[in-house]
Amino acid sequence: MVYPVKTIESERTLEEAGEILTRYNLNILPVVDDGKVIGLISKQVVEKGEYHGLKNSLVKEYMTTEFSVVSPDTPFSRVQALVIGQNQSLLPVIEQNRLVGTISALEVMRILQTEMMKSEKEVSVYESQPLYARKKVIFKFMKERFPERIHHLLMEFGKVGDDLGYSVYAVGGFVRDLLLRGENFDVDIVVEGDGIRLAEEFEKRFSCRIRTHKKFGTAIILFPDGLKVDVATARWEVYDSPAALPTVESASIKMDLYRRDFTMNTLAIQLNPKAFGELIDFFGGVKDVKEKVVRVLHNLSFVEDPTRVFRAIRFEQRFGFQIGKHTQNLIKNAVKVGFLERLSGGRILSELILILHEETPLPVLKRMKDFNLFHFFHHKLKWDEQAEALFEQIHHVISWFDLLFLEERYERWLIYFYGLIDILKDGEIGELCQRLAMNEKLKKRVKEGKLQADQALLQIFSWISTDQQPKRSEIYKILDHLSTESKLFMMAKTTQISTRRYISLYFTQLKDVKPLLKGADLIQIGIQSGPSIKKALNGLLKARLDEQVITRQDEIEYIQKAQGMETWP
Ligand code: CTP
Known about the structure:
Elements: H1 14-23, E1 28-33, E2 36-42, H2 43-51, H3 59-62, H4 76-85, E3 90-95, E4 98-104, H5 105-118, H6 120-128, E5 134-137, H7 139-145, H8 148-164, E6 167-171, H9 173-179, E7 187-192, H10 195-205, E8 209-213, E9 218-222, E10 228-233, H11 248-258, E11 268-270, E12 278-281, H12 285-291, E13 293-294, H13 301-304, H14 307-319, E14 322-323, H15 325-337, H16 345-357, H17 362-370, H18 385-403, H19 412-420, H20 426-435, H21 440-465, H22 472-480, H23 484-493, H24 497-510, H25 519-525, H26 531-545, H27 552-565
Parallel strand pairs: 7-10, 13-14
Antiparallel strand pairs: 1-2, 3-4, 5-12, 6-7, 6-11, 8-9, 9-10, 11-12
Helix pairs in contact: 1-2, 5-6, 14-16, 14-17, 16-19, 18-19, 18-23, 19-23, 20-21, 21-23, 22-24, 23-24
The structure holds cytidine-5'-triphosphate.
């Protein structure tokens, strides 16, 4: 233990903390108020904070408040477990509520290294002790949950890893969803070694294609059955001297996972044959998944990547979790300080699309209101009861439409997006598209699609309000040139049962109606090739929609009659 200890008060600024850290060449400072240790602040946090323009922010806003302490009587084995297992780089030593000293992780590492070098035997004992992570074998569970194809593939990854001398892990959302018993077969692999080399070896041995990104050390492996696996290389840089660590490999995956957003996404499963199915939990991810908590790994998580604010809310609502109290405070702080404003339009748009792609985006948007997030998109955008009701309707309409099992493809997010911007005027929609850095094509789809839907609604409403019964061909004419997204949005937005019935009629009966006669048939009947053919086909389509023709013969007679009159309906 080191004594005396340099400390800082929680009301001091990050800049002041930085000065002390630099002057005394320290990496971490205990934060002490009225003689009690209430947090820890590290050089890394201070430097990053300063980099992000936060030098005047208070230490208390960015200090770590979840940490362990020891007493002068704590056995070294416990100290070792805390430093390595919980990744705590400074342990305050407390006696009778007073800070009497500190123990640094580096010092513990040094002691361990000396111990390890003393005898070979002790090294192997040490390596067999999972001091650095909680581990659990979930081989059986994996076999139960994964389709044979996935299970087999994971084993192959482990075997190829062994052949190349790499440790290989399945990580991230794939593991999280396994524990949550969800279906997610987007396999993410992290390799302690060269990820690209592993992918290349896979390409040699199995039928698959690979795409590599040398700069990032990542690769995508595409299998003929559509399965896609992302392979990444774990970063190696760990502590000052990696050789001092008990197992360099584990430290490497640990650092890779440490960079991630939430504890629930930091779980890994080892795939090498001798340890296949070992779940590795460095940061308490299993506990948080069990307790349904969204928790960041460190206090600058949202400063480093503000998109995580949206991710936290999306995951919270998707899985029925709760964002942890401390993490909620960090979000509020990030919003208050205005970090989200620094996000580029493209990144905000991607997050928004991910939210609107969720199975039920409504609760995510409601939660976004709690955190006051709407004005980052556009100052006029807001979430109220009307928006909520519209989103509910969109959800119903989409569920109805999916049950029709039509071949029609559509983008779910866009329908919800129309719902979100329903409160905005035309010019404001343009401003929002600009803010979200939409390309011209998307801008057009948004602006025109929404406008056309609103105009078509007005047109149909004018029939209803004047008691007109539109012909089937008239319904077709109004709806056919609109995108599926616009039509579904209309269906959700309207309060008129008749409007809904017309759109439903379009999807279920009208949209695929085609004349039986083709252009070549018409030429045979004596229609001149050129624009007349198109006119004739349009006339036939209209007659068929309005059920004036049923058989092929009806169509021929219809054409002959129209030809005789030389007019097309
Ligand atoms: N990640 C992160 N910070 C981000 C985005 C991603 O740390 N801003 C990390 C997360 O740990 C995540 C991994 O990168 O597990 C992969 O990202 P992504 O594919 O978006 O996450 P999933 O968890 O697979 O999300 P989803 O289930 O929505 O696909």
